[in-house]
């Protein structure tokens, strides 16, 4: 059923003025199309009419018995689900809805009688007339998320035709900075500012000293902060032999001063490195520099910030519910609401084309051993096949940077190996797209 069509089960009644089961179908109790008590996504007109009826009732508070039953029902569901709480961003979003509702009075809902500051904090509660609903992830369910806005950045050349892609947006001391890969073979890293309209200014080539481990190119930057200094991780392409073939790729990083001059330049190393080292995700905790080496099992390295020498310090196993291929790294993790948010990419191999790169999100504890808490089972952003430039290019959404601002996530990513893009996501949508991992 699409928006504005009449629901086929159009025989609704108002069951009660308590929170559950609220408005429902007299035949089925719930909308059987999206298995949701409010038929919200499909916009069922009959349900809306019933909700209007409720909304237009005079603003008289429910009886003490009805109110007690309503609170008891909410509290029982919340306890049974393990007492999950809503994020600050999600609370603000719901508060704004209630404040604009005629049923709101003195921090209470006059329909269910609940005190809203408490009701909104519990992630299992919902509005009696479906204006907002329980977070599905607390029940092991989730909702697909997608960007609320996509911006294609105009960053070609110089010289003309030289691609820019795989870009990293980062909040450094309140300043939005932006790094990107410029060129394909023999690429360089550029760094600039990016404003509210996503216009990149002051961009200049980072003067990364060339050496054996990066002479073939400096690619796919990810910005991070350590001890108050801005760092840029990049992939160094190492060449070998008279034909100058690519020998291996190295995870490297440069430390920058306040004028973005390179003051340190190192490549990571550890005992059992692979030939192709790429998507490490650096973050700081307790004065130490760490990197996510592998998402599953969640493998964390401690990195020497002077030399880049690394060692595995934590590895935690968890059930992997990701549905879109190999889990690979992405943006540097962002500390938010007491946990780290990590936007990663999944890679689905295909024998028939060059494969598909998609974006997902997971959170992990902000303390050792940095266990994974929640994860999106499905991508939150996928490439549009119609935008692929040709059969030699994979389908690519390749996230390399993330910032959180004003209740939304802003993700920067490489698009189809050809351009830089920004995707905005509503914070609540990302939360609802994740399922709990750590019980
Ligand atoms: S919960 Fe909030 S939005 Fe829903 S009816 Fe009550 S006041 Fe209105």
Tell me the name of the CATH homologous superfamily of the largest domain. Answer: Glycosyl hydrolase domain, family 43
**Major sheet, described briefly?**
10 strands, mixed
Structural class, by secondary structure, is mainly beta
Specify the CATH class of the largest domain.
Answer: Mainly Beta
| Alpha carbon gap, first and last residue | 36 Å
**CATH architecture classification of the largest domain:** 5 Propeller
Please report which band the strand proportion falls in: under 5%, 5-15%, 15-25%, 25-35%, 35-45% or over 45%: 35-45%
- Indicate how many domains the architecture comprises: 2
Low-confidence runs: 1-48
Number of beta strands: 26
Shape: elongated
| Small-molecule binders | iron/sulfur cluster
Mean pLDDT: 83
**CA radius of gyration:** 25 Å
What CATH calls the topology of the largest domain is Tachylectin-2, Chain A
Number of helices: 5
Helicity range: 10-25%
